[in-house]
Specification:
alpha+beta, nine-stranded antiparallel beta sheet, seven-stranded antiparallel beta sheet
């Protein structure tokens, strides 16, 4: 049973910089894919001839909560048109995916798992009374086909079986019918057990395998949180066991696991797929809701404030397929890419670099993150991630004013409608915690409110910049939930063209980022000066970052990866200084599109 439950878009709205981030997303690719990209605007899901598998559901999974969070009538109307078209094409027996009856046995039903999850998301935003029956008929048909042996889980559906439990749990809460539990048991028994794959995660292979595919794995972290209750299994925190192996052998400074496109080890010049960023965040949101364990919330913050903005352009019209910790250029590889199984364009910023799944799927990350800011259970509400937002629930209206993670000041304006308990999660890295001017030492604040009581709560804590160790004697600078990198100035080279019927034109064209400043530095002092410049119109701006750190460095003979001119060596060829000490200014990782994040510390 969940420790905490999610609020809906009817109860949470974004504010401050978070609202601006969602607006940028709506003005960019996410809010316009149905107008410009054939796999959405001409999808088989709505009667067209383009892709009819995962891309429309992926897009709706983010577009729907984005539309409702922003209360954008046009976007809501467009979302409804897609949902109406999908429902209208549901077969009498409940089958919902766009394929012929004769094709069902060979159709990968990952699409069923995904579209039923999306329908639940849509229902939670819209309260559309049709949706429970649509989900019921879809999953009942799925159960009939699976239980009779007419179809079975294979490929993606076998590896992503647990995603179905968003809809299974939704359905069981409403109907309590035995077949729903039986379906859950079939999904669990036919689905992959990731504990059997962990031996493959300790040594990277230049080989594509479902068992090491980074998106499958980041999705799977929440499998036990979603499935254990309905199948009658005890919750064992299996996600932590998987996390420790994954991070120990494939971890990055921003909490990701390398995967370009399968697990890729600890090298700072290997990449991580954007789909995995979005899915790892979603897994952590559910893991925190299930357990209430602060570690999942802190890991969620780390990815959301660093990895997510880093791999999407400031205007959110373009994105990378993979990001690298030490990313000195984003230029096409004319021959063999540095990536293990990705193509030579995977790190470019564009409409669909390498492959289009991320084009559709990255849309869910920011909206679902916003919906995780507050959670509830009974008479208790908790602020999980302290980002600017407004909660308006049956119990209370709570407005949080803050510029976190760029600043550490928080003002909660609370108007209680009923008696309730309010909790505030305090990060483990917080120092000198002050609450209403009084010093405290707590990892969770608790306040009791009576009906009609109004109160303002001021919270402040400090965060200290420091080095964190990385493999091969490299260091990363971190302050609170923000990781800092040496930014590399760049020129952008724009490409407008058409390939396979997909047009790229400004602003959704492709870009190479060509470095024009030095990157071959080593830290030379453990001294940091933090400067806050204010959050501008683009919260994670690559031109005007809201916060910077000044420190000392010297140039070294770093060198390039063997065979490449635009990829730095995995580790420096030499740490002997080749310059005098100089000041360098670090930017948040999420603001630095070209960057050095892991560097040596020399004396």
């Amino acid at each position: 049973m969940n420790k905490w439950n999610f609020f809906t878009t009817n109860e949470i709205s974004a504010d401050g910089w978070l609202k601006r981030q969602l607006q940028i997303q709506a003005e960019g690719l996410s809010g316009n894919l149905d107008k410009i990209w054939k796999d959405i605007k001409d999808s088989a899901w709505i009667g067209g001839s383009a892709e009819g598998w995962e891309r429309v559901p992926y897009w709706l999974d983010g577009f729907v909560p984005l539309a409702y969070l922003l209360e954008d009538k046009d976007m809501i109307s467009r979302a409804q048109k897609y949902i109406d078209a999908i429902i209208a094409r549901q077969a009498p027996d409940g089958w919902i995916c766009p394929c012929e009856v004769s094709e069902r046995e060979t159709y990968d039903t990952w699409a069923i798992q995904l579209i039923t999850k999306v329908l639940v998301v849509y229902y939670e935003c819209s309260n559309d009374e049709r949706i429970p029956k649509v989900v019921y008929d879809t999953l009942r048909n799925y159960y009939d086909l699976l239980s009779s042996g007419k179809i079975k889980l294979f490929n993606w559906s076998k590896l992503r079986w647990f995603e179905t439990f968003i809809a299974i749990n939704f359905l069981y809460e409403r109907y309590k019918e035995d077949w729903i539990v039986s379906l859950a048991e079939i999904m669990h028994s036919q689905g992959a057990d990731y504990n059997e794959f962990t031996h493959l995660w300790k040594r990277p292979l230049n080989l594509w395998k479902h068992e090491t595919h980074i998106v499958n794995i980041t999705m799977a972290l929440k499998h036990e949180a979603l499935s254990s209750d309905i199948i009658g299994k005890p919750y064992t925190d299996n996600a932590e066991k998987l996390y420790e192996i994954l991070y120990g052998y494939n971890g990055t400074p921003v909490g990701l696991f390398t995967g370009d496109e399968c697990l890729s080890g600890l090298s700072p010049i290997q990449g991580t797929e954007l789909c995995a960023v979005a899915e790892q965040m979603y897994s952590y949101e559910h893991l925190y809701a299930r357990t209430g364990d602060s570690k999942w919330a802190e890991r969620l913050e780390l990815i959301a404030f660093n990895a997510l903005p880093a791999t999407i352009s400031d205007d959110m019209w373009t994105h990378q397929y993979v990001q690298m910790s030490n990313q000195i250029a984003c230029q096409r590889f004319p021959r063999k890419p540095i990536f293990r199984t990705n193509g030579g364009e995977a790190h470019l910023f564009g409409l669909e670099p390498h492959f289009g799944c991320c084009t559709a799927n990255f849309n869910q990350a920011w909206p679902k993150f916003a919906l995780s800011a507050f959670m509830h259970n009974g008479n208790t509400i908790i602020n999980v991630v302290p980002v600017p937002c407004i909660l308006n629930s049956k119990k209370a209206e709570i407005k949080l004013e803050t510029n976190y993670p760029f600043e550490n000041q928080f003002r909660y304006i609370v108007n209680a409608k009923d008696k309730f308990t309010f909790k505030v999660r305090i990060p483990s890295f917080a120092k000198n915690l002050m609450v209403d001017g009084k010093q405290m030492n707590e990892n969770e604040l608790t306040f009791e409110f009576d009906a009609g009581e109004n109160k303002v709560i001021d919270v402040f804590f400090e965060t200290t910049p420091h080095f964190e160790d990385r493999p091969n004697s490299l260091k990363t600078v971190k302050c609170g939930s923000l990781v800092f990198s040496l930014p590399i100035k760049c020129e952008k080279k724009m490409y407008e063209y058409e390939r396979n019927g997909v047009e790229r034109k400004f602003p959704y064209c492709d870009y190479e980022l060509i470095p024009i400043s030095d990157w071959n530095y080593a830290y030379c002092k453990n001294e940091f000066c933090v400067e806050f410049d204010g959050v501008g119109n683009i919260p994670f701006s690559s031109e005007n970052p809201p916060i910077t750190i000044k420190t000392k460095a010297k140039k070294i003979d770093w060198g390039f990866a063997d065979g490449y001119e635009d990829v730095c060596a995995k580790i420096p060829e030499s740490t002997k200084p080749i310059s005098e000490e100089t000041d360098i200014v670090l930017h948040p990782y999420g603001c630095a599109k070209l960057r050095m994040t892991e560097m040596p510390l020399i004396d």
